[in-house]
Amino acid sequence: MSDLTETDPAVAAEASETDPLESAETDAPATEQEIIDEGDAAADYIEELLDIADIDGDIDIDARAGRAYLSVSATADSNLRLLSKPDTVAALQELTRLAVQNRTGRFSRLILDVGGSRDARVTELTALVDHAVTRLEGGASTASLPPMSSYERKLVHDIVAERGFVSESEGEGRDRHTVISKA
After folding, report:
1. What is the pTM of this model?
2. What is the pLDDT of residues 31-52, one digit of tens each?
3. H/E/C letters for each residue in the chain?
4. What would the pLDDT profile of 89-148 be if each residue is shown by its tens digit?
């Protein structure tokens, strides 16, 4: 790999879109202590970021499905909404993962939720799946969803299974997407 390729922001962004659920780095499940360490490191990083940006927010740390899960919330009159857009949350999550990796020396699969952005995204994904199911019930053999992160694809797979259909991920890198079909 050339030096230009290694430092090219587009390549770095694409590399961050690799599927950590399929990565060799995540073969061994995180221990409870590792998840606690990740959550603490992530909370420290987010708290410092909020202080620097003078944004009000409360941080809750949880463990879900073998991952640290950080939720940042605030009152309705808070300026936290500035950080709750999906692309901003995704970028903050990647920065937080890097900060955690730097502190712990381990790859992190933590999930960051800012201002309820994850719940809002689950609602959007559910609507996408419902639309795809309608197409399948209308006679389509498969229905493809747009590319999304590994975490979002996992959520989609769960929603699809609840609806009694099957799904699989196809494509590579930023083009990786979910294809739904009848069971």
Report:
1. 0.69
2. 989 999 999 999 999 999 999 9
3. CCHHHHHCHHHHHHHHCCCHHHCHHHCCCCCHHHHHHHHHHHHHHHHHHHHHHCCCCEEEEEEECCEEEEEEECCCCCHHHHHCCHHHHHHHHHHHHHHHHHHHCCCCCCEEEECCHHHHHHHHHHHHHHHHHHHHHCCCCEEECCCCCHHHHHHHHHHHHHCCEEEEEECCHHHCEEEEEEC
4. 989 999 999 999 999 999 999 999 999 988 888 999 999 999 999 999 999 999 999 999
Separation between Cα atoms, residue 57 and residue 78, nearest integer Å: 8
Count the residues in the chain.
183
d(CA 173, CA 177): 9
Sheet holding 165-170, edge to edge: 142-144, 177-182, 165-170
Candidate from 5-9, 18-22, 160-164 with smallest mean pLDDT: 5-9
CA distance 151 to 172: 15
CA 111, 116, 119, 120 torsion: positive or negative?
negative
